[in-house]
Write a structure and sequence with these properties.
homodimer; 258 residues; seven-stranded mixed beta sheet; 11 helices; 7 strands; 43% helix; binds adenosine-5'-triphosphate; binds magnesium ion
Chain lengths: 258, 258
């Protein structure tokens, strides 16, 4: 089961959601593979602050068609990570027009899934995208069984959500299917009327595609990257941990996560 | 005086800062030109929710080398706006390798400044960038006299700030100068120790390049786009308005804004 965590709007909680949904899943005994598809490598930096070399990152999938099993590294208590690298910024210009480049990640993940050993094997794959709809994010959308769209609880983010809906609709002829999607309200501050307003407008626009679970604005979530951890490891009883646990339950119960 | 409001990290307050610094300047009698260089057009959407056609946007500077004076529209109480359009997403792939494309915006703004009429004339030009270091943001950096780098008061944003510093250093040979820069802490929450930690780390890293003024987390700032306004017009006595007014004072006093 592969989920692209995508929103071209910046700073809405994509990286945070990929990390903490993986952590929630791992705590339920599901093996997780995290794929960092952002040249800024924030997810990778939470695992290892210095990062890896370009040829040990997913950049080499594009540069050398390197098998993903050679790029997978262990993420203790979470599962696996395929790290990013700053060189990924060149993928659009160097390889953007290459043959079937748009399916490169999908092919790589399919091959990884057929391997007979344990490395990189996962029940759930979460792909963290950058805030730009280029070759990398398109790779994620084409490889995904579903798209999880974090939307921070503010007006500019709401406008971004409407843009994504149009993008997914425009991609349907090429994807040859309607991609299952869930919109997840993040940074939800119950003391602000704006938060409720945004949730209401999202439900009006996208109905059952909007998660009932919202992720609360919670300082534990923002602090955990500083100590190289997910929110469960950093503050297991925090509101943020509870919300991501509730999110996993909802996504499983509603069938979005098989 | 042209300022690129840039940070490849998403959601740090670039658009918010471009808008509200322009509003603070306008209230001091300075004429402002806002340039929206983000395909997601958030700044433009605050002016007009439906946006303009591609050929009336800055996309046509790249597609047809259209004179900027033909694209400038009035922004009551603020000054002028050159709007963006979703088509800008194609600039990297369509025109990225064109001759001298990197100076297209600079040339356009130089030409605009020589015009004898009032339209588009400004004391201060603020260029709102998208969270991606491609042809558009490079155009902004090459056109700018200085770079204003909003950094939200959290750890992942701090890491982004370090990346920008390396980027600006790497561009120095090409830019042929060291670009004056200011780092601006945004979404600063005084109740969180994290905010102070981030500010302290930023000052250790970047010293006098870090603004003393910080922009407080303030719901008025987040609400103003919903009503098509800047924070001064929406809530003149709010903390957000006060902070952006203080920011303008500091940038002028320190000589960053000539
Ligand atoms: N629920 C929350 N409560 C508090 N802080 C949060 C929450 N969600 C995210 N943050 C913080 O907000 C910042 C932005 O989140 P994050 O980096 O995950 O967004 P993103 O969409 O991945 O950004 P980008 O577009 O730059 O990749 C981070 O510092 C993160 O720690
Ligand atoms: N000081 C603040 N207090 C409260 N909300 C804020 C503040 N600064 C920004 N915001 C809100 O945070 C969200 C992100 O800000 P903004 O869109 O300006 O960032 P950005 O860097 O331009 O994002 P992008 O990378 O997507 O272009 C917006 O909804 C904005 O209204
Ligand atoms: Mg991210
Ligand atoms: Mg913006």
């Amino acid at each position: 089961m592969r989920i692209a965590v995508f929103n071209q709007k910046g700073g809405v909680g994509k990286t945070t959601t990929a990390l903490n949904l993986a952590a929630a899943s791992a705590r339920h005994g599901k093996r997780c593979l995290l794929v960092d598809l952002d040249p800024q490598s924030h997810l990778s930096s939470i695992h290892t602050i210095e990062g890896v070399e370009a040829r040990a990152s997913i950049f080499s999938l594009y540069q050398h068609n390197r098998p993903l099993v050679e790029l997978v590294i262990e993420w203790p208590t979470l599962g696996w990570l395929i790290p990013a690298h700053a060189e990924l910024i060149k993928v659009d210009s160097l390889f953007g027009k290459g043959p079937n480049i748009i399916n490169r990640l999908k092919a790589g993940l399919n091959e990884l899934a057929t391997a007979t050993h344990d490395k990189g094997q996962s029940d759930i794959t979460l792909i963290d995208c950058c805030p730009f709809l280029g070759v990398l994010s398109l790779n994620a959308l084409f490889a995904a069984d579903g798209v999880l769209i974090p939307v921070s609880s503010d007006h500019l983010s709401l406008r971004g959500a409407q843009q994504i809906n149009r993008t997914l609709t425009a991609l349907e002829p090429v994807l040859k299917r309607r991609v299952p999607r869930r919109y997840l309200l993040t940074r939800y501050d119950r003391r602000r009327r704006m938060s409720q307003d945004i949730l209401t407008q999202m439900q009006t626009l996208f109905g059952a595609d909007v998660c009932t679970t919202v992720i609360s604005e919670n300082v534990a979530i923002a602090e955990s990257p500083a100590v190289g951890r997910d929110v469960f490891a950093h503050a297991a009883s925090s509101r943020g941990a509870q919300d991501y646990a509730a999110l996993l339950d909802e996504l499983v119960m509603s069938g979005f996560i098989a």
